[in-house]
Amino acid sequence: MMNYLLISLVFSFSLQMFSYSSTLGKIKRVFEGFDFSIAQQAVLARGGDEVPYGPYFYLTAWKNVTKNYFKTNLDPYFINGTYTLSQEFSDTYIIDNKETSYFKRATLYFEATFQGIYHYENSKSFIIKEKK
Question: What angle do CA 132, 96, 66 make, to 5 degrees?
């Protein structure tokens, strides 16, 4: 009888570890998949008749790109958990001595809690460097 109990405990533990590693792998794969090619969708530039400046990250476009990426790629797999995205922007363009909503540096912070007790957090920074 003790053998059955031991076997069921080992099986239960193995199943839980498989579920943990599978969920963590999906989260990491989606986060690491957010690379510069996706971030480039939020990069804009202005010129011509206007005062030339750019390229830059546009605040609204960046938030839409990040939100849509994680909603599309993570939500179908992430049923029993929660995640939060937060952004930080720096190196603001200053035009006519006024700060704008155009930035050269964007940082994405990601935090996830899954299966009730496990926690994952990571961040990525994207910087626009102009060619000289």
Answer: 65
Rg of the chain over Cα atoms, rounded to whole angstroms, equals 21
Q: Which token pair is 7?
A: 């076997």
This prediction has a pTM of: 0.75
Helix (H) or strand (E) holding 105: strand 98-114
C-beta of residue 114 within 8 angstroms of C-beta of residue 120? yes
What's the pLDDT tens digit per position in 71-128?
888 877 776 678 888 988 887 766 667 766 678 888 999 998 887 788 899 999 988 8
**Using CA atoms, how far apart are residues 130 and 104, in angstroms rounded to an integer?**
10
Short-list 131, 125, 124, 128, CA closest to 93: 128
